[in-house]
Amino acid sequence: MNNLKVLILDDEIQFTEELAEFFQNTGFKTFIANTSAEGYAVLKKEAIDLLVLDVRLPGINGLDILKEVKKLYPGIEVIIVSAHGDMDTVIRAMRLGALDYLRKPFRTMDIQIAIERTEKFLILQQRIKQMEEKNSLISKNLEEKIDRHLIGVSPQILHVLDLAMKAAKFPDINVLITGESGTGKENIARIIHFSSTRKDYLLYTVNSSSITDSLLESEFFGHKKGSFTGAIADKKGFFEVCDHGTLFLDEIADMPLNLQSKVLRAIEEKKIARVGDTHQISTDFRIISATNHELDKLVEEKKFRLDLLHRLNTLHIHIPPLRERPEDIEPLLLYFNEDFSKKINKPTNPIEKDVIRMLQNYEFPGNVRELKNMTERAVILSQGQSLSIHDFTLKIKGKHFRSNESVRSTLSENEIEMIRNALHNCEFNQNAAAGLLGISRDSLIRKMKKYHIQITRNENPT
Ligand SMILES: Nc1ncnc2c1ncn2[C@@H]1O[C@H](COP(=O)(O)OP(=O)(O)OP(=O)(O)O)[C@@H](O)[C@H]1O
Ligand SMILES: [Mg+2]
Fold first, then answer.
1. Pocket lining: 289 vs ligand 1, CB cutoff 6 Å
2. Which CATH number is associated with domain 333-450?
3. pTM, whole model, 2 decimals?
4. 10 Å Cβ neighbour count for 142?
5. What homologous superfamily does CATH list for 159-320?
6. Going edge to edge, which strands form the sheet with 286-291?
7. Which ligand is nearest to the CA of 188?
8. CB of 443 sitting under 6 A from ligand 1
9. CATH dotted code for 5-134
């Protein structure tokens, strides 16, 4: 007995029984449920370690169950069971935190391997948990610092790193980071913050395009209780919570003009007053801002204040697109392959040379994020002993985005089609579509606005 408890949730009774037998033989204490209600009842009563979940239960979306379970019971690991050919669901499930997947119909071998992998993983997890409970070494704070590796060997990326280290050394200068979507701007902001003397204070990320205009001022400056309807208590704004820390203004180009002048004043004076209050509060923050727009042009068009730009770009770091530094592709690929394989508890398979050649000729409109997502997908889906070019096709309905695709009509036409296809394929779920395209959700929304792409079904955008 390994002391681990597994729940199998699937509507096919015979299948659940067969699977239960396998798990029992491996030493798991096994529970069965054939409906989601039965499943939740077991989860409530038993401290389940592993859930084997069919994502195609009648009348309910298995991915919703996965999300809910991960929320209610974050300690439970989930293996999903999917139908052959339903790979988009598998990818989405893995992104939602599923540990592994089994395809129906499957071979005995597949189940045995999955169980073995899972068992090792769960026992390891239990050990880590026990260690953490004894001596809480891995703090949340430390975890936050983990995703800040800068991989690359090109002279361009080494120059970026050099500038980032300079920025870290001078914790009071403001830094502007520019570069296309997915080039790693946020990554650099983290590296600067966590390598500077401000590292023990907050790094706070604000994306002005995602805050309602009417709330922007109070979000940045805070407010006094009663200063407007809804201001039920005093509240600190971003400038105040970032005292001694770093305020990361992401997509700075989207900041409305009236806010720009207020922000400029706050930066110059290092003092702010909360909305509805006259009392001046001193605060010591550093601003790192990022954009994928050309701010100079926006200044010319009078959409961005020149004086604010001068304040923000004391140090300017530009990250070139990935296609201009193809020598970074291989080290990034190796890094993501290893990192992701570890995360899903799979051995790291070698990458065939063809893959590297192919990717070095690919344009990477989504830059490093796209490469990362592609690798993630390849690691999840590959069946062989190595990753081959077949694992790396970015498939969007009716089109294969391969390096050797020589005909590219116009870039924007292609982009529009890709966006439409991705949205369609993901049932208009914007998060999923952005993931498929290898861009952030914010970028997707910006592009949808730019090309006037509307959600044509009645779903609420998610
Ligand atoms: N040189 C790098 N080494 C390792 N990981 C990287 C590198 N560059 C980018 N990444 C990873 O790629 C992903 C995208 O990077 P990031 O979010 O920083 O991009 P961004 O420029 O802020 O994009 P956007 O403009 O869409 O917000 C992240 O997961 C990041 O960790
Ligand atoms: Mg970003």
1. no
2. 1.10.8.60
3. 0.63
4. 9
5. P-loop containing nucleotide triphosphate hydrolases (3.40.50.300)
6. 203-207, 246-250, 286-291, 175-178, 315-318
7. 1
8. yes
9. 3.40.50.2300
